[in-house]
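Protein of interest.
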Amino acid sequence: MAHTRSKNEGTARPRRKAWPQSIIQSNGRYTILRRASVNTDAQHPRPRDTPPQATARPKKRFGQHFLVSQRVLSGILRLAEVSSEDRVVEIGAGTGALTAALAGQAREVVALEVDRDLIGALQQRFASQPHVQIVHADALRFDFAQIAPPFKVVANLPYGSATAILMRLLERPSPMSLAVVMLQREVAARLYATPGTKAYGSLTLMAQWYATIDKGFNVPPAAFSPAPKVMSTVVKITPRPEPPVEVRDEPLLFRVIHGAFAQRRKILVNALAAALSDQLTASLLARALTAAGVDPRRRGETLTLTEFARLTDGISAVMMAQSERPSPPSQGKSPMPPCSELREQD
């Protein structure tokens, strides 16, 4: 539940307040759902004892695979260290299995679900849980600033949009204290990969720039309904308050990283010559690489984040020197072609 921070906010569960009106968008991308009236005399089973909704039909366009394993749910909660003091955001509530587990331990749960057909059952299931708020929303568009930080993110993320959602949440200053999320195993492996491996790439470096990544455990297809065709992995992501290395130009660092992996089989000087062709010639780029102590013949997949930062500073220095140098008069010569003496390695 999103509420304004209070100086007296402690471990006691606060009274539920209305969501700010600013969160209810006129474009209909997401809405806050009001609770149905609750009959206090009725018997409500505990959420964790409530079976998944038999009528829930997974939708392929949402990449829905509902988590049904109690063992996996328990493992997720242990990894996230959910306590009675935590505000937790769940992305993709589905039929509410993880929501119910979180509700049993957290002080407050904000559960996002994009599928309108699941909202009614979720609303009914948690009607007697005032500390659980069901929100019909797309996590790629939802304004997380409406939720008072810090909060934990615990989620079985949709495979198709998991990376984009994580990048949104990790941008500094990140509102979350940590995230424990389920990902497709191949995607998870890219987050904590090491240089020189097949999984290592721009996503690895971007994730390491913003956070520390720890592998939790693998999850078999049988833990879901319907069972996906791939294995899954739970990872723990802890945002970094500051970058792990210093760099003069962060946007240029990201451009260099993406350029190095856009054609990952090319050696660095040729891959970056294509990515930075509007600002540097190949010969100047080779000079920057050498000055940074990076062999121009190496491939981007072998460089660490520290080496990419050092390389970026070298490129930045060359760019600044070029911009300060007066342009010579034109003599009709064609621009210098890409460096031809450096041949690709197999």
User: Anything to note?
Assistant: Residues 1-11, 13-55, 332-346 have pLDDT under 50 and may be disordered. The chain has two domains: 21-239, 250-324.
